[in-house]
Amino acid sequence: MDEPINENKNLSPKIPSSYFTPLDDTHHFDNERIAAPSLSFYQDAWRRLKKNKAAVASMIILLLIILVEVLSIWYSPYDPNLQNVPHANLPPRIPHVNINGFNGKAKISGVWVDKYELVHVPKDLNYYFGTDAFGRDLLSRVLAGTRVSLLIALAAAFFDLIIGITYGLVSGWKGGSVDTIMQRILEIISGIPTLVVVILMLLFIRPGVTSIIIALGLTGWITMARVVRAETLKLKNQEFVLAARTLGESSLNIAVGHILPNLSGIIIIQTMFTIPSAIFFEAFLSFIGIGMRAPNASLGTLLNEGYKTFRFLPHLMWFPAVAICVIMITFNLLADGLRDAFDPKMKD
């Protein structure tokens, strides 16, 4: 039996025309508009780095340290090697600070004694970090020692960028027998401890900055070379390299113009990790007596002098130790931040 036909079944409610708004002629342009601004690789890395508060704070501290060290070349409180024996072993005295240990007083036989008054030091003469056994200003010597450490760090970074990158790039790009021979040479060099190289150089060169820089120049760039080689082996078979070869680009142009820019992130990170290692290496050599020699100041020699009298004159060790700790910690924190910033897989 046929069902009765509902005449209102296919009827839809009438929508008023006032509900509709005519579109503008240019409405289709918004469909392809990019809401966020376009960022380059380095701009995106900087955006990520700024979110890491520890890395940003470390970078600011390092910039301040470098600025102070550069200015201290011309505006040092005293000559770091100037001896003033009557003012020997004075504790720190900071104006308007009334804290024992920082107001010119030292503990002698359980009693706090103003050592500045004992040796008749003028009221307007203050040693902010105290003095050593020869009356030399410790602040000036810490500034000079930090300058030496930063010079060593700059040399290590230079060798990484010049020797390490070139060696690793050539080894990875050439491959085959060339890569095999270059890696065997690298293994032979890395098999010789850097400390042994420094000791052998003492037969021909006086201990000091020169011997340490030469030692870093012989062995310090090996890690950078291996990292660059590994990344080059991974990148040289990528599509953009094959496209450059197809277009007739020379090997040198491809390596320098295409592969090297893609290695910039890992190069910056590895360099930042190399710098604190070089600073610690210099301090270690100077501490054991085969690096910087007295009367020249370095953080290692200051630590060597300070630990001998640490129980009686703790300021001689505390200030150099704090200086080297701050430098190494800030470099490592900045390196960690750069590693996260340059990692494209890192999530915001």
Description:
The protein is mostly helical. The protein folds into 2 domains: 44-79 and 136-341, MetI-like fold; 91-126, no CATH class. The chain has helices at 41-51, 53-72, 115-118, 138-174, 176-190, 194-201, 209-219, 222-235, 239-246, 251-262, 264-288, 299-307, 315-341; strands spanning 105-108, 111-114. Strands 1-2 form a two-stranded antiparallel sheet. The longest helix has 37 residues, at 138-174. The radius of gyration is 32 Å and the shape is flat.
User: Could you tell me the strand content as a percent range?
Assistant: under 5%
| Average of the residue pLDDT scores | 83
The strands making up the biggest β-sheet line up spatially as 1-2
Strand-pairing-aware structural class: mainly alpha
The CATH C-level name of the largest domain is Mainly Alpha
| Helix and strand run | HHEEHHHHHHHHHHH
* Cα-based radius of gyration, to the nearest Å: 32 Å
CATH topology category name of the largest domain: MetI-like fold
CATH architecture of the largest domain: Orthogonal Bundle
Helix content: 55-70%
Counted beta strands: 2
Low-confidence regions = none
Give the name of the CATH superfamily of the largest domain. Answer: MetI-like
Q: What is the count of structural domains?
A: 2
Annotate the secondary structure layout.
Elements: H1 41-51, H2 53-72, E1 105-108, E2 111-114, H3 115-118, H4 138-174, H5 176-190, H6 194-201, H7 209-219, H8 222-235, H9 239-246, H10 251-262, H11 264-288, H12 299-307, H13 315-341
Helix pairs in contact: 1-13, 2-4, 2-13, 4-5, 4-7, 4-8, 4-11, 4-12, 4-13, 6-7, 8-11, 9-10, 11-12, 11-13, 12-13
